[in-house]
Amino acid sequence: MTTRTRTTSPQRTYRYLRMAISGSVVVVFTSILVTMPIVGLLPSLSHYYYTPARTMFVGALIAVAVCFFALSGRGTERALLDVAAVIVPLVAIVPTQISPDSVPGIDSGCAGGAASCVPVAYHPDVDDGIVTYLIVGVLIMLLALALALADEVDRSGTLLSVGIAAAIVLVVWLTWWLARDAFLRWAHLVAAVGFFAVIAAVAVVNALRPVPASAPHWLKGAYVAIAVALGVIVLGMPFYGSLHVGDLYGVFVGEVLALLLFAAFWVLQSLQYWRVDDPRIIAQV
User: Fold this and answer.
1) Is residue 161 included in any domain, yes or no?
2) pLDDT-derived band of residue 1, with 50, 70 and 90 as boundaries?
3) Residue 54 domain boundaries
4) How far apart are alpha carbons 39 and 257 in whole angstroms?
5) In the prediction, which pLDDT does 6 show?
6) What are the φ/ψ torsions at residue 249 (nearest 5 degrees)?
7) Coarse DSSP helix, strand, coil percentages of the chain, rounded to the nearest 5 percent
8) What is d(CA 31, CA 54) in angstroms, rounded to the nearest whole number?
């Protein structure tokens, strides 16, 4: 007779959160594959913001941010995931620059003869998204501070996360307000590189943390490999634009690999914490 282990509500909740994070990559890839027969192979995944894949692309990234806030746990990993949660909406809100004819049917409309830009037609979308991001960001920080006052045990961790988030939100507001052209030019790239750098750091934390005896013995090595691979991709990302073979660009390949590594990390996290009753990150680094 087989004995079935009963799962707890926290187990199921946090399993589903981790699975949803890795599943967001499936959503992004699926929406892009569905769109490819219409627009073809574009220079980067981010270019599909300007195609019918935009809704699912943006929605998946916002969902990841919410999951990060819910799953952040304690210690170093908590601060890193909270930072990622603040950064990743910017990847969705601010589109990448495009050059003329790089996206079928889209007129880049670059002023002053610039080689690439965010088309003027999309500026109101960016402004609406950034204003919403700033307002909601402030409200979340105020809520976090209120909760910190009621939780003496975890107060220092919350204050650290709020402090970092406040600094990021302040930089976003000032650059968007005072240097709009520079913000539109660099915000997407900086946010994307920063996001994957943070995820690489999270993988390093997990590599350094003792792996439970119940977890596979190869798990630590897998975290190290993911961290190194993401680091290589992140460092090379700014230089991939000039590399291409036909219609296949280096940025596209780099983004695909980075998302696959991101998904693999969260699949491993799901595996490691599958039977954990306490949703907190137990060991701290």
Assistant:
1) yes
2) very low
3) 9-272
4) 21
5) 66
6) -100, 150
7) 75, 0, 25
8) 8
Helix (H, G, I), strand (E, B) or coil at 249: strand
The span from the CA of 71 to the CA of 144, in Å, is: 15
Rounded to a whole number of angstroms, the distance between the first and last alpha carbons of the chain is 42
CA 206 to chain centre: 18
User: For residue 225, how far is the Cα from the chain centroid?
Assistant: 19
Whole-prediction pTM: 0.88
Query: How many CA atoms lie within 13 Å of 241's alpha carbon, on the beta-carbon side?
Result: 12
DSSP string, 206-242: HHHSPPPTTS-TTHHHHHHHHHHHHHHHHHHGGGGGG
Q: Could you tell me if residue 154 is inside a domain?
A: yes
- Per the structure block, which two tokens stand in for 119? 């088309």
**What number of other Cβ atoms are within 10 A of residue 2's Cβ?**
3
**Does some domain include residue 282?**
no
Which residues on neighbouring strands pair with residue 245, listed in sequence order? 248
Question: Model confidence over 183-234: pLDDT tens digits?
Answer: 999 999 999 999 999 999 999 888 887 776 666 778 888 999 999 999 888 8
Rounded to whole angstroms, how far apart are CA atoms 28 and 61?
9
Phi, psi (rounded to 5 degrees) for 248: -95, 115
What is the tens place of the pLDDT at every residue in 29-76?
A: 999 999 999 999 999 999 999 999 999 999 999 999 999 988 866 678
In a domain, 33, yes or no: yes
**Domains identified in the chain, total number:** 1
The β-bridge partners of 98 are 117
The DSSP output letter for 98 is B
Higher pLDDT, 25 or 161: 25
